[in-house]
Amino acid sequence: MTELTRLTAADIAAKVAAKEVSAVEVTQAHLDRIAAVDHAVHAFLHVDTERALAAAKAVDDDVAAGRPAASPLAGVPLALKDVLTMQGAPTTCGSKILENWQPPYDATVTRRLLEAGVVILGKTNMDEFAMGSSTENSAYGPTRNPWDLDRIPGGSGGGSSAALAAFEAPLAIGTDTGGSIRQPGAVTGTVGVKPTYGTVSRFGLVAFSSSLDQAGPCARTVLDAALLHEVIAGHDPLDSTSIDAPVPPVVAAVREGATGDLKGVRVGVVTEFAGDGYETGVAAAFTAAVEQLRELGAEIIEVSCPSFDLALPAYYLIAPSEASSNLARFDAMRYGLRVGDDGTRSAEEVMSLTRAAGFGAEVKRRIMLGTYALSAGYYDAYYGSAQKVRTLIMRDFDAAFAKVDVLVSPTTPTTAFKIGERTADPMAMYRADLCTIPSNLAGNAALSVPCGLSDGLPVGLQIMSPALQDHRGYRVAAAYELARDAAQGGPLINRVPELEVVH
Amino acid sequence: MTTAELMDYAEVVTRFDPVLGLEVHVELSTATKMFCGCSNQFGGEPNTNVCPTCLGLPGSLPVVNAVAIESAIRIGLALNCEIAEWCRFARKNYFYPDMPKNFQTSQYDEPIAFNGWLDVTLDDGTVVRVEIERAHMEEDTGKSLHVGGATGRIHGAEHSLLDYNRAGVPLIEIVTKTIEGTGERAPEVARAYVSTLRDLLKALDVSDVRMDQGSLRCDANVSLMERGATEFGTRTETKNVNSLRSVERAVRYEMTRQAALLADGGSILQETRHFEEASGTTRAGRRKETSEDYRYFPEPDLVPIAPSREWVEQLRGTLPEMPAERRKRIQAEWALTDLELRDLINAGAIDLVAATADAGAPPAEARSWWVSYLSQQANNQGVELGELAITPAQVARVIALVADGALTNKLARDVVDGVLAGEGEPDTVVETRGLKVVSDDSALFAAVDEALAAQPDVAGKIREGKHAAAGAIVGAVMKATKGQADAKRVRELILQRCGA
Ligand SMILES: [Zn+2]
């Protein structure tokens, strides 16, 4: 492994700008790393070597010509979750039904990255249509956790987080509907951020659950996440749910947090997210992290959010309901897989055969759940009740944020579990998102920052902030990250085992 | 089909009360589609006015067309509706190949306009108030073309072609409350309602309202109840009703069909039926095994619409004079009797006459041209009056030429024929056809002298004082001048020549 793949995004950008290293060299180093280790990790579904190098070359040309950098991340490689469209590359969403589909347009996030001079290496693996917590639901095979290749890297964005932990990319983009950025971040020892709903455009993000989906940054450091956050966030007239407000000052918040002073910051510990179901090692790491925040000057307050216990069932009504409608378009008529079109069958039969063959079991399970929840006679009891719970959860957040600046909890109740361990037990799988779902339902901001190891596996600290106050979480995370590394003798991510390299 | 399938209409209305419900879909003539920037132009090459959003490509998102909302509110106001202070779009979920997302973005339980009415005047002047339940916004689907097979329907077709140009075109659906108590006049009420609505939408300038092109489509719900009954019967919904005349025929047909079934002890199936233009009948659509459950839920990709009261009032200020008010005003201004007004309306001439008057013609002259000569021409050509190839301004010009004495009435008709034949403006036709009145006396004297010389016996009688004999000479002169002379002047010249 070359040193270049160990650098942070901020360092890479600085070195490229200072001509200490070229963007092409950095990109090539990451492409080499992918070639060397991705056979074992399987973080990527698609790598576009030529385009990545061409994008890097363009950045180097800018530097050589003395033109100002397109952004603070110009020349930095990135792994893009395969749920965001990019012209000239396939977008599969981890599904057979979209195998080889080439979108004719760029997602707004993709466009912003390209305009910022970020070098997109390729598309990362994910649970099919972002439905899952382990990336085992990908139609193209699971991604493995670089900390232990027999374990899951979290999901749905396991590919993006694993790529970071495997040093295949310093930055990645994920999408978070119920925890799909934060939970993979937690179990791979990386940083994952779900921005406030409506602050990062969903245009070009293949929808799972429109009212919950939000793209966000994944990185190995809090600063890198913040830099990426500011590149991708901002109002987009192509997304009606996009908020027309300034991007929260997250980079400035990181710099403020890096002073190591959290005096006057009130941190709420959610009492509901503890006890049964939380691994001892996770609870211990979380408690230690809270202590560290106290030492940094934060005031620690216990806060009860009773409705959070209802978040999981509400989520599993709302998300599948929206998904059942969003995924109706995959019908073989215009693009994607087509099965059974032998000239004898009707369009309806071809639709049905294609969907039967093209969707995996979990996607079908959720389509059925959602179809049922929206059915005449059941709508009020299921979808309607779930929306009421959503309101209650928002009220709990409002009450909590009246008392504290941020809320904290473990990101996920357990460390990375073994591949195959929960595939037969959907409820056990769903519980991985117990702590992350409330922020999706409320539409506020939340992130996960590594907070130690349990039996050699990473644990995540979740920090939740009110809507449009994303910078609060970044400030606390940055202060914590610094203290953590000081206490533990260097960045946690450096303790990820060496992967076997093929040449 | 057995012969007992239809009941005589007179018997239908003595035994049953019809109940109607009309759903009219109007395609808005906005520049762009409902949720994307694609052109909303009718008749483009298939699949040329499309983009990721209206093709429903993965990852695409809708953005509401503000002009469509404005049109919807104006339509609501013109229909005397309340305008919602807050409303949303919903998704109507069902699978169909011409629907790119397999859900239609529509309004469900929160329409933008509701609780209105429209007064409809029947041919004999009776006014019927039709209550409006709601007017809501939605998007159109694409179009399927089924190739092969005998019927042109999806069943039995060899393959189907899909054109998504129409997908995402903004639609307003206007739904009436049940229309009861119209008895034997139900079919006429249905036609008059659609006709009145069409005029109103035309005046609002929000749609092309072309039934033949599908920019105005009517679905007619019809049910019958035994006279004196208190509960509605089962209704059918007839689609594919593509002209005003068809609206009337479809309702009438359904009444006779349902009555025959009911009289026979049968029951009506709640179903969708299709109107067959050629036979004037309706046929059942493909039967579904299960009733459709559209699983409506609020569209999460769009934000609620909350038109401010200020904006609504501002839009109210943009409403044009409504056709009904306009007619009342015109009747007063032109001093028309009710009968004259109705004739004008029934001939579809009122707007044309008004426009002709606006172009400077006396209203009486304008009315006379449109109601008589031009109506005949439209009849001969088998087109609507408004479809004739002559504009109100051109008619006004012809009327002015007659008033100036440059044309006689006969010549004026020739000029109109020329315009209708595509020969250009009235003045051009006068020029090229050489239709000017011959007003040069010397030219006329020559013709008069010639005629007198040709008929010396008649000339002699005139000279003897028998003035009545002059008629024969007038006729000869008119013939010689191809009718371009003023007959009265010719007569004067003849008498002068004969010293009478
Ligand atoms: Zn479009």
TrEMBL record, chain A:
<keyword id="KW-0436">Ligase</keyword>
<dbReference type="InterPro" id="IPR036928">
    <property type="entry name" value="AS_sf"/>
</dbReference>
<feature type="active site" description="Acyl-ester intermediate">
    <location>
        <position position="180"/>
    </location>
</feature>
<keyword id="KW-0547">Nucleotide-binding</keyword>
<feature type="active site" description="Charge relay system">
    <location>
        <position position="156"/>
    </location>
</feature>
<dbReference type="InterPro" id="IPR000120">
    <property type="entry name" value="Amidase"/>
</dbReference>
<comment type="similarity">
    <text>Belongs to the amidase family. GatA subfamily.</text>
</comment>
<feature type="domain" description="Amidase">
    <location>
        <begin position="25"/>
        <end position="472"/>
    </location>
</feature>
<protein>
    <recommendedName>
        <fullName>Glutamyl-tRNA(Gln) amidotransferase subunit A</fullName>
        <ecNumber>6.3.5.7</ecNumber>
    </recommendedName>
</protein>
<dbReference type="Pfam" id="PF01425">
    <property type="entry name" value="Amidase"/>
</dbReference>
<feature type="active site" description="Charge relay system">
    <location>
        <position position="81"/>
    </location>
</feature>
<keyword id="KW-0067">ATP-binding</keyword>
<comment type="function">
    <text>Allows the formation of correctly charged Gln-tRNA(Gln) through the transamidation of misacylated Glu-tRNA(Gln) in organisms which lack glutaminyl-tRNA synthetase. The reaction takes place in the presence of glutamine and ATP through an activated gamma-phospho-Glu-tRNA(Gln).</text>
</comment>
<feature type="region of interest" description="Disordered">
    <location>
        <begin position="133"/>
        <end position="154"/>
    </location>
</feature>
<comment type="subunit">
    <text>Heterotrimer of A, B and C subunits.</text>
</comment>
<dbReference type="InterPro" id="IPR023631">
    <property type="entry name" value="Amidase_dom"/>
</dbReference>
<keyword id="KW-0648">Protein biosynthesis</keyword>
<dbReference type="InterPro" id="IPR004412">
    <property type="entry name" value="GatA"/>
</dbReference>
<dbReference type="InterPro" id="IPR020556">
    <property type="entry name" value="Amidase_CS"/>
</dbReference>
UniProtKB/TrEMBL annotation, chain B:
<dbReference type="InterPro" id="IPR004413">
    <property type="entry name" value="GatB"/>
</dbReference>
<dbReference type="Pfam" id="PF02637">
    <property type="entry name" value="GatB_Yqey"/>
</dbReference>
<keyword id="KW-0648">Protein biosynthesis</keyword>
<dbReference type="InterPro" id="IPR014746">
    <property type="entry name" value="Gln_synth/guanido_kin_cat_dom"/>
</dbReference>
<feature type="domain" description="Asn/Gln amidotransferase">
    <location>
        <begin position="351"/>
        <end position="498"/>
    </location>
</feature>
<comment type="function">
    <text>Allows the formation of correctly charged Asn-tRNA(Asn) or Gln-tRNA(Gln) through the transamidation of misacylated Asp-tRNA(Asn) or Glu-tRNA(Gln) in organisms which lack either or both of asparaginyl-tRNA or glutaminyl-tRNA synthetases. The reaction takes place in the presence of glutamine and ATP through an activated phospho-Asp-tRNA(Asn) or phospho-Glu-tRNA(Gln).</text>
</comment>
<dbReference type="InterPro" id="IPR023168">
    <property type="entry name" value="GatB_Yqey_C_2"/>
</dbReference>
<keyword id="KW-0436">Ligase</keyword>
<keyword id="KW-0067">ATP-binding</keyword>
<dbReference type="InterPro" id="IPR018027">
    <property type="entry name" value="Asn/Gln_amidotransferase"/>
</dbReference>
<dbReference type="InterPro" id="IPR006075">
    <property type="entry name" value="Asn/Gln-tRNA_Trfase_suB/E_cat"/>
</dbReference>
<protein>
    <recommendedName>
        <fullName>Aspartyl/glutamyl-tRNA(Asn/Gln) amidotransferase subunit B</fullName>
        <ecNumber>6.3.5.-</ecNumber>
    </recommendedName>
</protein>
<dbReference type="InterPro" id="IPR003789">
    <property type="entry name" value="Asn/Gln_tRNA_amidoTrase-B-like"/>
</dbReference>
<keyword id="KW-0547">Nucleotide-binding</keyword>
<comment type="subunit">
    <text>Heterotrimer of A, B and C subunits.</text>
</comment>
<comment type="similarity">
    <text>Belongs to the GatB/GatE family. GatB subfamily.</text>
</comment>
<dbReference type="Pfam" id="PF02934">
    <property type="entry name" value="GatB_N"/>
</dbReference>
<dbReference type="InterPro" id="IPR017959">
    <property type="entry name" value="Asn/Gln-tRNA_amidoTrfase_suB/E"/>
</dbReference>
